[in-house]
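Expect chain and fold; see below:
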Amino acid sequence: MFDFTNSGCACGRVARRTFLADVGMGFTGLALGAMLHRDGVVRADAPAPVSAASPLDGRAMFAPRAKSVIWIFLSGGYSHLETFDPKPALNQYAGKTFDETALPNPIKSPLHDKRSRSVVAESINKRDTYPIIYPLQVGWRKHGETGVDVSDWLPHLASCVDDMSIVRSMYTTDNDHAAENQMHTGRHRLDEIQPSIGSWVHYGLGSVNDNLPSFVVLGGPTRPDTRTSIGSYYLGPQHAGVPLSLDPANPLPYGRRSPDVLADEQQREYELIGTLNRLTAVEYPADQALRARIRSYELAFRMQMAVPEALDLSGETADTQKLYGLDQEPTKLAGQRCLAARRLVERGVRFVQLYPTPYGVWDSHQKLRDNHAKQCGIVDQPVAALLKDLKRRGLMDDVLVVFCTEFGRTPGLEQRSGGKDGRDHHPHGFTVWLAGAGVKRGCVYGATDELGFHALEPGHYVTDLHATVLALLGLDPHRLDIPGRKRLDVDRGRPISGILA
């Protein structure tokens, strides 16, 4: 017989909360942690109690503009130049070196060293300094009421520019694909790991639906070394992203009931645990954790029911499925993920991290024209459909959509290995956009220089994007702290006020 205590499990005695977290389904601890979090309680094996300023009651710190976030990440680094920040000067000076133009050489700009942080010696780190200007590989036109320049590869998204705030002055400091983690955590790979933006949202607010995870991941993490992008680190595992599958037979990996256990049997097990907890509550009436309606097994059971329903796209109308491109093979998977994201935020999920394409596929060191034309064709219609669908359902006032990548591509031609038709990684200036709750519509904010090399001051480091998202959710990053964990100013960022409605 278990001897449940409020302490740890010394002398063979098992802590009641540990028992509830560990026995049975693999995701029970996640469910329990989420519920305790929303009720203002921290699990016994979680980090030390947070400060009074931390919003563990699940309420925003100030009036929120958004209720949920759909964070769309395109892995590999799409070219800002061939998407949302075309530069005519690249065609004008094509084939010339930076020094041969009438423009300042961007490599000699003080911004270059100020915003660079190399893992290898600066003397051999020449990846971003290719001097021969490479022309744009696609045309562009002005769209929307404000005449926003958008690539011809993105006709569907171009039709949505009047609903977007396009930020053309982002930068980061890692010129390799560890920038994928940096985009989500705000830290360079040489630094201590930090919690991801989704985990901070989960920690601050939790969910409004006890039947679903608060932080859901669709299509990722893209591979094991990008797990940090959905991780929660010292916030505790209950705040990490929960990857869900669109496989209707197994939407919640590792969360299926064992085939030798009937649903009725499992439900009775949950009811037994609930009865034991209520009996224990009589013995320990001051136990806040127990009083916080510990129904982890019941919640786990409900998640088994709710997750498949949320991800079941078959009930959507034929028109909606066609809108997202589910009727075409190139757009089908990205469309399914975008449509699933809409269904999840409708049901109260706070943060959906969505990967419409696989790891690194936008990484166009060679054959940029072919690669970007293909990848744009995959994501253009589904992402635009998401915006249009949210709008027609009246959700644009509640849901914030973020569209981003880890860095841009170089204005210069990549010449490694005899390269003739690609661009290298470019962290010094790139473009993201936001749409929906709390942001201006039809807005272009910030800029890169005439060659698209540097984000002009005030440039925005990636945590400024994080701070913007948190502010729209009613959270102040300066008050999201854990005692004993020192956060830097760069970790907190500053909201990009110029795009706030």
Notes: Residues 68-246+317-499 form a domain with the Alkaline Phosphatase, subunit A fold (CATH 3.40.720). Residues 1-14, 16-33, 38-56, 288-293 have pLDDT under 50 and may be disordered. The two ends are 59 Å apart (CA to CA).
